[in-house]
Design goal:
Layout (H helix, E strand, L loop, with lengths): L1 E15 L3 E8 L3 E7 L18 E8 L5 E11 L3 H4 L1 H17 L7 H16 L5 H15 L19 H5 L9 E5 L4 E4 H5 L13 H8 L8 E2 L2 E2 L2 H18 L7 H16 L1
Parallel strand pairs: 3-5
Antiparallel strand pairs: 1-2, 1-4, 2-3, 4-5, 6-7, 8-9
The protein binds zinc ion.
Zinc ion binds next to strand 7 and helix 6.
Amino acid sequence: MALVTSRAIVLRNHRLGETSKVAVCYTRDYGKVRLVAKGVRKGGSRFGAALEPLMVSGVVFYLREGRDLSLVSQASIERELPELRRDVVRMAMGGAVVELLERLLPDHEPDCELYEFTESTLEVMSEAPVATLDAVLWRFMLDVACRLGYRPELSRCVHCGEDDCGGGSARDGEAGSTAGWAGFSPELGGLVCDRCASGGELEVPLAVGPEAAVLAALAGDDGAVALTVAGHEMTPATRDDITRALGSFLEQHAGRSMRLKSLDFLAQVRRLEESDS
Ligand SMILES: [Zn+2]
């Protein structure tokens, strides 16, 4: 048993018994760990808010090989990212980030790059204009998928392999140039072209249509076009379709029954956004 220190992002917490809680944390140096904080629920916790979700904290804990739970000895806030708590859209986005890591990552597998990318993603979600955050979330989802070894096919049709279906011209930003993609199939793991989809044998449950070009553009590493389709700003419903397509893909490939609750919450927030505008 070793007493170790790491910077960590708190993903989730839940109660344990009468007075303790378990904080699931993504640590920079030890990967995902489950930290038991004793006595925190007796009011006036000595850890304060340091073990609340979406906090970036320094944690000191007893690492025990082969054990699921580690006892936390100290926790202090390193970064608060308060906007993630104040604004409901930002909160929903940040919630999706931490839920993805909580549900998808194996325990005890450190990945410094992913840790840094996650912290900077949360920082952007806390500070950048809300209208740009969808593309930030999509990029994060794609990045996590790639790191876990299941990169979606976004440059050619996942069924027939054709690559002249509009992704390239969408990157040039030409209006109306996005025909060719029928949609995105979470099951097949990529974009499906019109020809394959029109045959009828192929199910394309998420027919995101022209918006599929946005996914192709994201894969092409061009965030600038990510929030427009043929020069028009996307509606909340369209943005939700794309988030749902990527979410279903991750759910599908996670290899166990999984439903990302944060994406339902985000969809609800978006419906409010839509009814306000
Ligand atoms: Zn095809």
